[in-house]
Amino acid sequence: MPTLIKLLRFIDWMSEKSGQLGKWAVLLLIFAGSYEAIARHFFNAPTIWAYDSMIMAGGSIYMLGASYNYLHDSHTRVDLFYSRTSPRRRALIDVIGSLFLFFPLMIIMFKMSVTWAIKAWKINEVMFNSFWYPPAAPYRTIFAIGLFLLILQGLARFIRDLYFVIKGKEIV
Amino acid sequence: MFELSAELVAFLMLGGVFTLVLTGFPIAFVIGSVAFLVGLLIFGPTTTFHILYSRFYDLSLNYPYLAVPLFTFMGVILQHSGITKDLYESLYEALGRLRGGLAIVTIVFGTILATCLGVIAASVTILTLVALGPMVTRGYDKSLAAGTIVASGTLGILIPPSIMLVVYGPQAGLSIGQMFMGAVFPGLILAGSYLLYVVVRCYLSPEMGPAIPADQITPFSTAKLWRLLKSLVPPVLLVLAVLGTIFSGIAPPTEAAAIGCLASILMAIVYGKFSFGLIKHASIETLRVSAFVVMIAALCYAFVGVFMSAGSGEVVSSLILSVPGGRWASFGMIMLIVFLLGLFIEWIGIVFIIVPIFSPIIVQLGFNPLWAGMMICINMQMAFQTPPMAMSIFVLKGAAAPELGLTMADIIKGVIPFVLIIMVVLVLCTIFPGIITWLPEQVLGVSH
Questions:
Q1: Do the Cβ atoms of B66 and A29 come within 8 Å?
Q2: A23 vs B22, B255, B283: nearest CB
């Protein structure tokens, strides 16, 4: 059991770090956006890199935030009934929900994202949004990592909920 | 793989989402999984996986949606540097001696907040924290106090910049700038109507919002006026500058928002409120908000991909077009559906599922898409305030100090008049569509 608890805490730690790391992409996004606006408007020197840098920064915010939000239970729920049921019932809803509505979808998405990330590295895939043509592989990899951490956090939560449903007390 | 009729697919997908979200499982995953399961059934794994993955991936790299994190960041910084309790207190001293004065202050403050913040939870929370206590302890009617806070806090998501308009525009093929312009007058008219209601109501029954005796409030001095202007003018100017940049077409909303973030940081430095802690706090809050919005958006986008590929979009459209009574009846049907959905699910789900399905129908009916889109956005103001699923009410209830003894019944009773006002404004915008379309037409010089 102590090993399991350690593992769960390690997953929490990773999700927390993922969010803390991803938050810097917000500043990157602000920087790239303002730089482009100022350079183009005042110096007539538009950049070639701002557009792609911005969308990749944005994507990193969302994907690295996915597990962070799962850890902090920030993914919106319709809690009309949910908030009124007992904690044990809520845990049961999350256990069943995870099995049918979370893991199958997310595992497939993760599998697809890994396939694409590997392909992108192999064929040196580039992005076609601008004339900068940056490699797509780094973002495809971040995308896959974000989903991986989300699934891990989903697993950690699943174990905790399952334990709570069975034993009626919290695991950690 | 099964041959399912498009009607059955439409029923399974929409019915599946609207029942399964009620379990309380996070709606992003419910929506994605319904699309996943139905897709498997009708298209088989290869096609389904491809639709879901590629749409999820594409949406994560969407340029216009970058305005979501950017406006969120700007709002958090402004909230912590300029517009604060000071502003409320100054307004309180200026207007407190009027009947219903504090409710008036709440609406004015709420409208100003709405221009700076684009996230509903933020504006309702701030209003609850600073305005509920003074109103209740001064003997204001609890329902009136609660209704005022809910209604004016909800304006935050209508008056630009607002993340709802940011995500709505691209879904309906409208530019974010157009949406922002279209929302200016409806937002101000709503705020004005709330004000009028409070003034009239408190004039007729003074016990609902008693005036504070002049000797109980500190007189309003020029020093205070100066303090008020100092805390109010720069942030509002900043937001107006950002909106002006977008409206005049100098920069797209995303870049204008980025500049706005930079300017808000500079402003925090000038006010002496800057710290790395603030930047970190704003960044992580931005990550939290935008990650959950975009997670829902991405999976809804995947959902709509499956829904449309199955031909179910046409099912819904023929259903709405077949409503007897011509195009206005069909439009009324759309508004009714949005209103009813708003009772049960959150705005993000409505915008991302309903808008892509309804937008082609609105065009087919011959309505101006911008006008129709804004009508839906105003309609959704009600969604935030009508139980059972009423985001603004939940936020108010959560942030209200327990010793004020505010009950759910008080809140709901207080919200009803404001919901009726929204309906009146919707009727007004139908009779005078120029309320919505005039500003965008003047600025962009186009008419639909």
A1: yes
A2: B283
